Amino acid sequence: MKEQYRNMKELLVAHPHVIQLARNAMEAAGVQVKTECVRGGTDGSRLSSVGLPCPNIFAEEQAVHSRHEFVCVQDMQKSVETLVHLVGLAAAQ
What we know:
By secondary structure, the chain is mainly alpha-helical.
């Protein structure tokens, strides 16, 4: 058996401030915070497993992993706004 990825929750429990920063950034961008469990080898899972606590924020993609997968421009704009707020909040700490 070979480990492919780790459960992010196990790694992020020790860093609740990171999750709170993400929530605050989303709220500042006017994004409704919705917490869901995801399975799979995400970038956040990989980064967290090597010591950089990194929750998945959101992408709002549709028809995930199909040949019809897409993301709306408006959702991508909210993603950028969230990241700008996240950087500002992190820098203020």
